[in-house]
Specification:
heterodimer; A: about 300 residues; alpha/beta; Glutathione S-transferase Yfyf (Class Pi), Chain A, domain 2; Rossmann fold; 4-stranded parallel β-sheet; B: alpha+beta; Ubiquitin-like (UB roll); Fumarate Reductase Iron-sulfur Protein, Chain B, domain 2; 15 helices
Amino acid sequence: MKYAFYPGCVARGAAPELYKSTMMVVDKLGIELEEIEKAACTGAGVLQEKNQKLGDVLNIRTLALAEEMGLSIMTICSTCQGVISQANHRVVNDKEYLDEINEELAKEGLHYSGKTEVKHLLWILLEDIGIDTLQKMFNIDLSGFNFAPFYGCYLIRPSDALGMSANPKRKHSLDIVIESTGAQSTDYAGKTRCCGFPILLINQKNSLKMVAKHTGDAKDNGADAMVTPCPLCHLNLDGYQAKARKQNKRGKADLPILHLPQLVGMAMGLDPKELGVNKHLVSTANFIKSIKSKVA
Amino acid sequence: MEALIKVKRFNPEESEDTYFQDYSIDVAEDSTILDSLIKIREQQDGTLSLRCSCRASICGSCSMRVNGSAKLVCKTRIKEVSPDGEPITVEPMGNFPVIKDLVTEMDSFWSKMKSVDPYVKTSFEPEAEHIASNESMTHLLGVMNCIMCGACVSECTALEVDPTFTGPAALAKAYRFVVDPRDEETNSRLGNLNENTGVWDCTRCLACVEVCPKDVAPMERIVKMRDLAIEEGYTNTSGYRHTESFNDSIKKHGRLDETRLALESTGLLNISGLIDLAKIGIKSLLKGKLPPILPHRPKDMKKVTSIAERLDNQGSEED
């Protein structure tokens, strides 16, 4: 199983532990990755506000690069997945627009036919690996743990661009993967809401209210940790949890925020520290201890 | 066909608590949720309160949360949300106070709608019908489809934490007048919308786009107004600095320069904001994970920068 890999800026920047844990997990899964080294940032929806066509050309270029490699794309970021999917959705439903974008790409000798598949690691686990096969690779039973899923907006909406009707399980994909480890998936309202990151630098007060609400609600509903397939959500939910909880009187920052491959890796029996679980700003010391007690 | 409907009940005259009540009702295969709620009220429980009128997705009265997300219940068939007879949860809309059961108080909705002056403003009083050309209005058809049902407001993630936010419905309505060719107050409208509680408070979470039963796409209108406000010279916002810095980063590096984005969006004169960032920076550094000084660049980056330059110029020519 081989994919063209699109790690995204954050896994290459502020969240190196996501990149590392992904590599450890795909190795175990027997997935081969070839990074699309020429790919640009997706624009994260911000670039698109100012110049949608530029965003679309850059994303369709990424799809064309993968097409040239003859591979489907694997992403590890809800935002990257969503923004590329949205661009793809626009061009496959508008032949004229695709032609227009291909004219730009032709200057670089590239062409996009509209057929590249883009899948988040989360969907690959579900659809390409399969939950049964995945469970056979798990060495540690995480029953007794309670993990709160946090999807990230762009992995949930808009449902048409994300192929939700053809793949209805995608709506619950993170809950399914959490439960496949033996753990319980926390039931709380915030799991498909916004983490606040897009307005962190614009309206920090509101942004932190979101962090406090979702982490506080998850904790109140029994979560031992939160799991997210989006490193941008992670930056806010982890990096700003202390300030957010204090500012909004929701107690101390006591909810570790894990990247998806960190959870999968721990279930596989990989060392939490190797997976970078100790790299988060919210303390994970007690959590790591309780995971390790499962191994012993 | 048997439908199992779990309705969230609330009657402040009896108790401050809400509770779920299960109803099992025999309905036709193609029934809508509204059909079944009306049937429940008529045949099983006359105390169930709900708001509805046209039953044809025109009046916008019957928005409710179905399985956790706002829908017009007259437009939603039972089969659609419960293909295998699963129980269906029906609750009042979110982000609105509840009067009773499924009926919400809409005052804040209407006052926000009024706050954006939802009418064409001109310096003269037209003597006859003030007609705009078809060509200048066709792009507004989508946004004019709004039936003011409140579904977008119900799911808005910014309103959930800040009830003062103008919100998707009123902002989509504002857009309809901002771009109306007959309106003469475009600049002052954008000035107002650029203030706190306006266009920059949207989280771009797409919830409004997802639930709108009329494809109004409020979020897309909101982000368009951000751009229009910038074009009109409203640049003293962290939102503007954020967008500019993001764009520059992609043009220069092909990827996101996280450190610079954080610094520039915060504003280099915003001392308390910068101290705040430094704290997070130091904590990250101690964990050994500060972003690199320069972002990880794509191979053959000149290709990316040349596309950006070309399309940037094209964009401004088109404007």
